[in-house]
Amino acid sequence: MNTCLAPCPVVFDLDGTLIDSAPDIHAAVNAVLRAQHTAPLTLDQVRSFIGGGVDLLWRRVIAATDLPVEAHRDLVASFMVRYHEATALTRLYPNVAESLGVLADRGYPLGLCTNKPTGPTMAILDHFGLTRLFGAIVCGDSLPQKKPDPAPLWAAFRGLGASPDRPRGVYVGDSEFDAECAANAGVPFLLFTLGYRKSGIEDMQHTGRFDDFAQLPLLVEENVPVT
Protein backbone atom coordinates (compact mmCIF):
# COMPACT_ATOMS: atom_id res chain seq x y z
CA MET A 1 0.00 0.00 0.00
CA ASN A 2 1.24 3.49 -0.77
CA THR A 3 2.43 5.47 2.21
CA CYS A 4 2.60 9.22 2.57
CA LEU A 5 3.97 11.44 5.28
CA ALA A 6 1.23 13.73 6.56
CA PRO A 7 0.36 16.22 5.31
CA CYS A 8 0.44 14.58 1.90
CA PRO A 9 2.03 16.48 -1.03
CA VAL A 10 -0.16 17.27 -4.04
CA VAL A 11 1.76 17.96 -7.25
CA PHE A 12 0.29 19.41 -10.45
CA ASP A 13 1.10 19.43 -14.11
CA LEU A 14 0.80 22.91 -15.66
CA ASP A 15 -0.18 23.09 -19.37
CA GLY A 16 -3.60 21.60 -19.94
CA THR A 17 -4.09 21.09 -16.20
CA LEU A 18 -3.92 24.42 -14.37
CA ILE A 19 -3.73 26.59 -17.48
CA ASP A 20 -4.95 26.60 -21.05
CA SER A 21 -1.74 27.84 -22.64
CA ALA A 22 -2.39 26.45 -26.12
CA PRO A 23 -3.37 29.85 -27.61
CA ASP A 24 -0.06 31.44 -26.55
CA ILE A 25 1.95 28.43 -27.72
CA HIS A 26 0.03 28.46 -31.01
CA ALA A 27 0.77 32.16 -31.51
CA ALA A 28 4.48 31.69 -30.81
CA VAL A 29 4.72 28.68 -33.13
CA ASN A 30 3.02 30.53 -35.97
CA ALA A 31 5.24 33.58 -35.46
CA VAL A 32 8.24 31.35 -36.07
CA LEU A 33 6.57 29.73 -39.07
CA ARG A 34 5.81 33.15 -40.57
CA ALA A 35 9.46 34.09 -40.21
CA GLN A 36 10.28 30.91 -42.10
CA HIS A 37 7.71 31.70 -44.84
CA THR A 38 5.83 28.54 -43.86
CA ALA A 39 2.05 28.16 -43.71
CA PRO A 40 0.59 28.49 -40.19
CA LEU A 41 -0.82 25.60 -38.20
CA THR A 42 -4.26 25.54 -36.60
CA LEU A 43 -4.83 25.86 -32.87
CA ASP A 44 -6.08 22.28 -32.72
CA GLN A 45 -2.94 21.03 -34.44
CA VAL A 46 -0.64 22.83 -32.02
CA ARG A 47 -2.73 21.80 -29.02
CA SER A 48 -2.30 18.17 -30.06
CA PHE A 49 1.49 18.65 -30.07
CA ILE A 50 1.69 19.88 -26.44
CA GLY A 51 2.81 17.68 -23.58
CA GLY A 52 6.29 16.32 -24.15
CA GLY A 53 8.28 19.54 -23.88
CA VAL A 54 9.51 22.07 -26.41
CA ASP A 55 11.83 19.72 -28.31
CA LEU A 56 9.03 17.24 -28.95
CA LEU A 57 6.65 20.07 -29.82
CA TRP A 58 8.99 21.21 -32.56
CA ARG A 59 9.66 17.71 -33.84
CA ARG A 60 5.92 17.46 -34.34
CA VAL A 61 5.70 20.92 -35.94
CA ILE A 62 8.49 20.04 -38.36
CA ALA A 63 6.76 16.77 -39.24
CA ALA A 64 3.56 18.70 -40.01
CA THR A 65 5.27 21.27 -42.24
CA ASP A 66 7.91 21.35 -44.98
CA LEU A 67 10.61 22.61 -42.61
CA PRO A 68 13.90 20.67 -42.65
CA VAL A 69 14.69 18.44 -39.69
CA GLU A 70 18.16 19.96 -39.41
CA ALA A 71 16.61 23.35 -38.61
CA HIS A 72 15.21 21.99 -35.32
CA ARG A 73 17.69 23.71 -33.00
CA ASP A 74 17.33 27.12 -34.65
CA LEU A 75 13.54 26.84 -34.68
CA VAL A 76 13.47 26.01 -30.98
CA ALA A 77 15.73 28.97 -30.21
CA SER A 78 13.52 31.30 -32.24
CA PHE A 79 10.43 29.92 -30.52
CA MET A 80 11.89 30.35 -27.03
CA VAL A 81 12.50 34.05 -27.61
CA ARG A 82 8.75 34.46 -28.13
CA TYR A 83 7.63 31.79 -25.64
CA HIS A 84 9.58 33.00 -22.63
CA GLU A 85 7.10 35.75 -21.75
CA ALA A 86 4.01 34.42 -23.56
CA THR A 87 1.15 35.08 -21.13
CA ALA A 88 -1.35 37.32 -22.95
CA LEU A 89 -3.56 34.54 -24.32
CA THR A 90 -3.17 31.98 -21.51
CA ARG A 91 -6.02 31.46 -19.06
CA LEU A 92 -6.45 29.58 -15.81
CA TYR A 93 -9.08 26.90 -15.99
CA PRO A 94 -12.19 27.82 -13.94
CA ASN A 95 -11.87 27.39 -10.16
CA VAL A 96 -8.13 26.63 -10.27
CA ALA A 97 -7.05 29.48 -7.99
CA GLU A 98 -9.86 28.79 -5.54
CA SER A 99 -9.11 25.06 -5.33
CA LEU A 100 -5.39 25.61 -4.86
CA GLY A 101 -6.24 28.00 -2.04
CA VAL A 102 -8.53 25.43 -0.39
CA LEU A 103 -5.88 22.72 -0.56
CA ALA A 104 -3.20 25.07 0.81
CA ASP A 105 -5.52 26.14 3.65
CA ARG A 106 -6.08 22.48 4.52
CA GLY A 107 -2.34 21.97 4.90
CA TYR A 108 -1.49 20.12 1.70
CA PRO A 109 2.00 21.03 0.45
CA LEU A 110 1.58 21.96 -3.22
CA GLY A 111 4.10 21.43 -6.01
CA LEU A 112 4.46 21.59 -9.76
CA CYS A 113 5.95 19.02 -12.14
CA THR A 114 5.89 20.12 -15.77
CA ASN A 115 7.79 19.53 -18.99
CA LYS A 116 7.51 23.28 -19.68
CA PRO A 117 10.90 25.07 -19.43
CA THR A 118 11.66 27.07 -16.29
CA GLY A 119 11.50 30.54 -17.87
CA PRO A 120 7.97 30.28 -19.29
CA THR A 121 6.81 28.36 -16.22
CA MET A 122 7.86 31.09 -13.80
CA ALA A 123 6.55 33.82 -16.10
CA ILE A 124 3.07 32.29 -16.17
CA LEU A 125 2.99 31.53 -12.44
CA ASP A 126 4.04 35.10 -11.66
CA HIS A 127 1.48 36.42 -14.13
CA PHE A 128 -1.34 34.68 -12.28
CA GLY A 129 0.08 35.25 -8.80
CA LEU A 130 0.45 31.52 -8.12
CA THR A 131 4.19 31.22 -7.48
CA ARG A 132 3.92 31.56 -3.70
CA LEU A 133 1.55 28.58 -3.48
CA PHE A 134 4.10 26.05 -4.72
CA GLY A 135 6.78 24.80 -2.38
CA ALA A 136 8.51 22.80 -5.12
CA ILE A 137 8.64 23.54 -8.84
CA VAL A 138 10.27 21.01 -11.17
CA CYS A 139 10.37 22.01 -14.84
CA GLY A 140 11.34 20.36 -18.08
CA ASP A 141 14.91 21.63 -17.82
CA SER A 142 15.35 21.07 -14.06
CA LEU A 143 16.66 17.51 -14.46
CA PRO A 144 18.14 15.42 -17.28
CA GLN A 145 14.92 13.37 -17.24
CA LYS A 146 11.48 14.52 -18.36
CA LYS A 147 8.04 13.04 -17.79
CA PRO A 148 6.98 10.27 -18.17
CA ASP A 149 10.21 9.33 -16.37
CA PRO A 150 9.27 9.40 -12.67
CA ALA A 151 12.41 11.30 -11.57
CA PRO A 152 10.91 14.82 -11.91
CA LEU A 153 7.78 13.82 -9.99
CA TRP A 154 9.80 12.16 -7.25
CA ALA A 155 11.94 15.31 -7.03
CA ALA A 156 8.83 17.44 -6.56
CA PHE A 157 7.53 15.18 -3.79
CA ARG A 158 10.90 15.22 -2.05
CA GLY A 159 10.96 19.02 -2.31
CA LEU A 160 7.67 19.08 -0.42
CA GLY A 161 8.96 16.93 2.43
CA ALA A 162 8.07 13.43 1.26
CA SER A 163 10.31 10.54 2.24
CA PRO A 164 13.58 10.70 0.25
CA ASP A 165 13.68 6.90 0.04
CA ARG A 166 10.11 6.33 -1.13
CA PRO A 167 8.52 9.66 -2.06
CA ARG A 168 4.74 9.56 -2.10
CA GLY A 169 1.93 11.97 -2.86
CA VAL A 170 -0.87 12.66 -5.32
CA TYR A 171 -0.29 13.80 -8.91
CA VAL A 172 -2.84 15.85 -10.85
CA GLY A 173 -2.55 16.11 -14.63
CA ASP A 174 -4.32 15.93 -17.96
CA SER A 175 -2.23 13.94 -20.43
CA GLU A 176 -0.86 10.55 -21.27
CA PHE A 177 2.57 11.78 -20.17
CA ASP A 178 1.14 12.58 -16.73
CA ALA A 179 -0.72 9.29 -16.37
CA GLU A 180 2.36 7.29 -17.33
CA CYS A 181 4.57 9.37 -15.04
CA ALA A 182 2.28 8.74 -12.06
CA ALA A 183 2.16 5.03 -12.86
CA ASN A 184 5.96 4.92 -13.11
CA ALA A 185 6.24 6.75 -9.79
CA GLY A 186 3.69 4.46 -8.13
CA VAL A 187 1.38 7.25 -6.93
CA PRO A 188 -2.34 8.05 -7.35
CA PHE A 189 -3.18 10.03 -10.48
CA LEU A 190 -6.14 12.42 -10.69
CA LEU A 191 -7.09 13.15 -14.30
CA PHE A 192 -8.41 16.56 -15.38
CA THR A 193 -10.55 15.53 -18.33
CA LEU A 194 -10.76 18.88 -20.14
CA GLY A 195 -7.05 19.25 -20.85
CA TYR A 196 -4.86 18.15 -23.76
CA ARG A 197 -5.19 14.36 -23.61
CA LYS A 198 -5.29 12.51 -26.91
CA SER A 199 -6.65 9.20 -25.60
CA GLY A 200 -10.09 8.30 -24.34
CA ILE A 201 -10.60 8.70 -20.60
CA GLU A 202 -11.08 4.97 -20.09
CA ASP A 203 -7.85 4.28 -21.98
CA MET A 204 -5.79 6.25 -19.45
CA GLN A 205 -4.80 4.79 -16.10
CA HIS A 206 -6.14 7.04 -13.33
CA THR A 207 -7.27 6.85 -9.73
CA GLY A 208 -9.93 9.54 -10.04
CA ARG A 209 -11.09 12.10 -12.57
CA PHE A 210 -12.77 15.50 -12.62
CA ASP A 211 -13.88 18.14 -15.10
CA ASP A 212 -14.25 21.05 -12.66
CA PHE A 213 -11.55 22.15 -10.24
CA ALA A 214 -14.23 22.82 -7.64
CA GLN A 215 -14.41 19.01 -7.33
CA LEU A 216 -10.69 18.60 -6.71
CA PRO A 217 -10.29 19.20 -2.93
CA LEU A 218 -12.75 16.42 -2.08
CA LEU A 219 -11.21 14.14 -4.70
CA VAL A 220 -7.76 14.68 -3.20
CA GLU A 221 -9.05 13.82 0.27
CA GLU A 222 -10.61 10.64 -1.08
CA ASN A 223 -7.38 9.54 -2.78
CA VAL A 224 -4.61 10.51 -0.36
CA PRO A 225 -2.31 7.50 0.12
CA VAL A 226 -2.82 6.10 3.62
CA THR A 227 -0.12 5.13 6.05
What is the strand and helix layout of this fold?
Layout: E1 10-12, E2 19-20, H1 22-35, H2 43-49, H3 54-64, H4 72-83, E3 91-92, H5 96-105, E4 110-113, H6 118-127, E5 134-138, H7 151-159, E6 170-173, H8 176-185, E7 189-192, E8 208-210, H9 216-223
Parallel strand pairs: 1-4, 1-6, 4-5, 6-7, 7-8
Antiparallel strand pairs: 2-3
Explain how this protein is built.
It is a single chain. The protein has 227 residues and is of the alpha/beta class. The protein has helices at 22-35, 43-49, 54-64, 72-83, 96-105, 118-127, 151-159, 176-185, 216-223; strands at residues 10-12, 19-20, 91-92, 110-113, 134-138, 170-173, 189-192, 208-210. It has two domains: 10-20 and 90-223, HAD superfamily/HAD-like (Rossmann fold), CATH 3.40.50.1000; 22-83, DNA polymerase, domain 1, CATH 1.10.150. The protein has nine helices and eight strands. The strands form two sheets. Strands 5-4-1-6-7-8 form a six-stranded parallel β-sheet, sandwiched between helices. The mean pLDDT is 94. It catalyses: 2-phosphoglycolate + H2O = glycolate + phosphate. Its cofactor is Mg(2+). This is Phosphoglycolate phosphatase.
What is this structure, in a nutshell?
This protein has 227 residues and is of the alpha/beta class. The protein contains 9 helices and 8 strands.
